[in-house]
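Look over both lines:
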Amino acid sequence: MTDVKDGQLGSATERRGAEENGAKGGGLVLRWWTRCRKHMTLKQELLPIKVILFLFYAGQTSYLPYLTLHMQVLGITVKEIAIIYSFLPIASLLGPPTSGLVADTFGRYKSVMMVNMVLTVVFHVSLLYVPQRSISSLSLTCRPDNDTLTWAACDLCHHNRNHTQFELTLKDCRFLCESPPEEEQLRVCLSNDHHTHCLALNVTDQVSANGTILSWQDDDICGHTWYDQVLDDQVYQRLTCQSQCQVECQVKMAPTCDHPDEPSNGATTFWVYFAIRMTGSFFLSSAFTMTDATCLALLKQYGGELGIQRLFSVVGVSLGPLISGFLVDKFSSDAELPDFSPALYFGGILSLLSILLISRLHFVVDMAGDTVMKDLAKLIVRTEVDVFLIMIMTQGASWGFIESFLFVYLKELGAPNYLLGLTMTVGNLVGLPFLIINDWLVERLSRPVIFIISFFTYAIRHFGYSSINDPWLAFPFEILEVFTYQLMWLAALSYCPLLAPKGLLATMTGLAGAIHYSLGRGVGALLGGFLISRYSTSRAFRIFGFISLACGFLYAIIHFTYLKKKVAEREAKHKDKEDTEEEEEEAMLGKKVYNTTVIKSATHSATETSH
């Protein structure tokens, strides 16, 4: 009997152990299945914000990356572009905190966001109506005996160009006679006292040569004689065309006039553009941060993960620039002066569609109350808040430098417009899977570690860009944007609820967005413009790489030696607060269920009694 009982006991123990192991295995599978269902299930309440994020981000990024190139098309100089970018952070810094404070004080998130979005579209589309700076064109008339460089109109810089050297490129040549040769080929000859060198060219070909110009003026006609032309290290004195039919060519890279008293120096173009862009940037930066704050408010009310919502904005950022780049190429008749109006109109339409959906949103936010200024003062003096803001400002400088000058750099390397948009598409699409597991990554790695990784990744990107000589080689470094933009900014956004006092979520989010996207971008653009003008674009990228490395090491030292304990305490306090709110909600739900059950039971008993 004993043996039998022992055997039965052993079998029962084994069965119980097997059941527990099976339960553990089943629990693991159940947890993964629950996580997958959670990601695959779309909450109806959060569906509008997903579409809004897609439309708004696709709309804004359809034209924002091309605004620097659009300024160049208007004739705004590199020096003036640097001045504009140095002042834009002022408008961008004032916008988000102002809008966030108004939204927190009155609880009118939706109204504030709609006003910002409408005015963003209006002012940025208005940039298309800024008068283009008039640039007097230079043409070369070529005959069998000599050549003449002639300006379309004289300017005050004409005599200052006397005996100055330029590299001139001839393009778009055409024959000027009643019976032009049937063939499109012409012979351009460079000669000196000892040698003559002739080139057989098509009228659509381009030829470049260094040379010195001798200025002359005949009444209202201004021109130059081109001498000491250098081609293939050989110096020539004359340029002639071996054709009985006179040839006229347009001159590319003609010297511009920066004389302060020149009536056509385009002061109107600069100041009109400056005023519109400053005002548009005020509402643009506010619209971005109010969109993030509204998303956080909806998540707090209905639940959900921030990474899943932001995934749709990344899809928008991926598709917007790509489509607008193709539209610009398709509708631009002159590759040298591309037409950016399709990008601005396309982006404006998408943004207006997002406004229609915003008007249908329904959500509740915490009111800041009478202590808003007191809480704001507490927010500013917190050490962890100050370090956080300085950190995102330095990362914003790297982002701003890339945003402002990467397209210019790729254009220097010969990139077409569609490739510019494609770089953003590839970089953002690669980051989509990471957005799904973003909350898990934040919990596993912690936000400060993600910030440190972002610094070092920026360094890799800067060094990488500085070493390429083909625009297509930029794609591997654009892929790294998943660490420098998507993960970093999501970690920063999820950090705002930990740092913000009650009722100041929009203010904290607006302050972070203003520091990163406005002040940081302005610092990066201004410093980058100075470095490019002093050195070169590739060397400027290399210098930013060293800056990112230094900032990454410095932030790591500050965090692990001083802030780590403070951050842990704040995260624990925030978690306790969330647990308390969840318990209160469950208690209220249980009370409602209990009351409903009691009422139903009483009603059922009364019904039976009546029967």
The chain has two domains: 41-133+267-580, 138-252. Residues 393 and 520 are 4 Å apart (CA to CA).
